[in-house]
């Protein structure tokens, strides 16, 4: 995978957050609280698992292009990377009793930055280098169950990851050669997490329904181990870091990382297989975030989401009339504050591209795409980010996932 990402904002907290929705929901502005469809696995609200009717395998990939713009000095830098966005398997345990489960793995955040700052003293030039790598992940399983109109669900799993920060200082002189000092701060962490959700469906008429939904991610306390080392090194952009001498190597320090609670609530109006629209509000208590007792510039955040979907003719002969066209919009303050608040705005659209005709009731293959334009920061922030993200998901349930029946 190509991972040439560079985002200074990922230095804080556990890094840049990866969208907590599958590709289908991302295209609709990230609506998940009230979304429920048997042809997709909505891992954000596990109450939706109760509606699974057929074994479903869902995998997603993200391609992102990020552009950084600095105010002083005015510069621009673009990086691109490709990562898996989730892998999950939805299983209907009892169609009659509205009982389903899901098993999945997905990334939560990414740390990836490489910054060089040069200054001039009275004699020498000094070059400071800051490099960070790492991220966090969740492996989980969950269940959803309930009646025809009211369902509840939960996920339980293990959240884990690592973060590594390198700080280099180099003195540059025309006649004297100095060695470079390098400090490495490495942290590994892990702990159990839980979340739960609820959905309620109210039929407005024979074809149209109103669905209400809410979910909550509970505060997670993870055990962490941190180690610090200081070395004298030779450094070059071609060969990287070559250690000459170890100056200090600290004993592993045990501590805690507190990952904050969050919640979401919303509604969707669904005209079955024709159109749907929805509104949702999300909030997260990032003031509660702690890394070995430090808050690391994290602040409470919220996001307002709007989106919808249109299918011109679900049973039509023309292929493009059977495609699901999706659109969405979201905005809100970021969970990071550096002197001034940072705002985020995202525009999204996408499509659900059926690979099979809908006459197959026990098998289907859909390619879900999402295009997102994300803006982070404004003219009052030192660094502004713009992000283009292309997400592609393969939603597959074919005949080989079902037990054959013989008479």
Structural class assignment: mainly beta
SS summary, helix count? 1
So what's the oligomer here? Answer: single chain
| Strand percent estimate | over 45%
Fraction of helical residues: under 10%
Q: Helix and strand succession? A: EEHEEEEEEEEEEEEEEEEEE
- The backbone outline, from C-alpha atoms, is elongated
Mean pLDDT, nearest integer?
Answer: 88
Largest sheet: 14 strands, antiparallel, barrel
DSSP, total strands: 20
Short description:
Helix content is 1%, strand content 65%.
Can you offer a commentary on this structure?
- With 407 residues, the protein is mainly β.
- It has a domain at 3-284.
- Helix content is 1%, strand content 65%.
- The chain has 1 helix and 20 strands.
- Strands 3-4-5-6-7-8-9-13-14-16-17-18-19-20 form a 14-stranded antiparallel β-barrel.
- The longest helix is centred in the first third of the chain and has 4 residues, at 23-26.
- The radius of gyration is 24 Å and the shape is elongated.
- The relative contact order is 0.18.
């Amino acid at each position: 995978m190509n991972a040439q990402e560079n985002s200074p904002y990922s230095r804080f907290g556990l890094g840049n957050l990866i969208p907590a929705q599958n590709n289908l929901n991302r295209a609709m502005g990230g609506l998940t609280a009230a979304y429920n469809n048997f042809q997709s696995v909505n891992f954000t609200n596990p109450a939706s698992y109760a509606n699974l009717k057929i074994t479903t395998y869902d995998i997603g990939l993200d391609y992102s292009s990020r552009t950084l713009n600095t105010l002083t000095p005015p510069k621009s830098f673009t990086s691109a990377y490709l990562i898996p966005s989730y892998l999950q398997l939805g299983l209907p345990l009892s169609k009659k009793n509205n009982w389903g489960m899901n098993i999945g793995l997905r990334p939560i955040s990414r740390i990836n930055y490489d910054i060089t700052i040069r200054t001039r003293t009275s004699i020498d030039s000094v070059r400071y280098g800051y490099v960070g790598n790492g991220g966090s992940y969740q492996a989980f399983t969950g269940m959803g169950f309930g009646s025809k109109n009211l369902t509840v669900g939960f996920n339980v799993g293990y959240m884990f990851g690592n973060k590594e920060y390198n700080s280099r200082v180099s003195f540059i002189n025309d006649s004297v050669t100095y060695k470079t000092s390098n400090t490495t701060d490495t942290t590994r962490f892990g702990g159990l997490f839980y979340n739960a959700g609820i959905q309620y469906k109210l039929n407005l008429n024979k074809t149209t329904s109103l669905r209400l939904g809410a979910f909550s991610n509970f505060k997670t306390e993870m055990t962490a181990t941190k180690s610090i080392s200081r070395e004298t090194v030779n450094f070059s952009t071609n060969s990287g870091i070559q250690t000459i001498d170890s100056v200090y190597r600290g004993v592993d320090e045990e501590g805690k990382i507190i990952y904050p609670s969050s919640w979401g609530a919303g509604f969707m109006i669904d005209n079955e297989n024709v159109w749907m629209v929805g509104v949702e509000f999300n909030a997260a208590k990032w003031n509660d975030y702690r890394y070995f007792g430090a808050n690391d510039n994290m602040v409470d955040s919220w996001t307002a989401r709007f989106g919808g979907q249109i299918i011109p003719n679900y049973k039509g002969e023309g292929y493009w009339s059977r495609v699901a066209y999706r659109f969405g919009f979201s905005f809100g303050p970021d969970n990071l504050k550096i002197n001034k608040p940072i705002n985020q705005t995202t525009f999204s659209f996408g499509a659900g591209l059926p690979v099979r005709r809908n006459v197959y009731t026990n098998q289907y293959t859909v390619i879900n795409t999402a295009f997102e334009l994300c803006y982070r920061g404004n003219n009052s922030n030192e660094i502004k980010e713009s992000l283009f993200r292309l997400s592609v998901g393969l939603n597959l349930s074919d005949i080989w996932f079902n037990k054959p029946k013989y008479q």
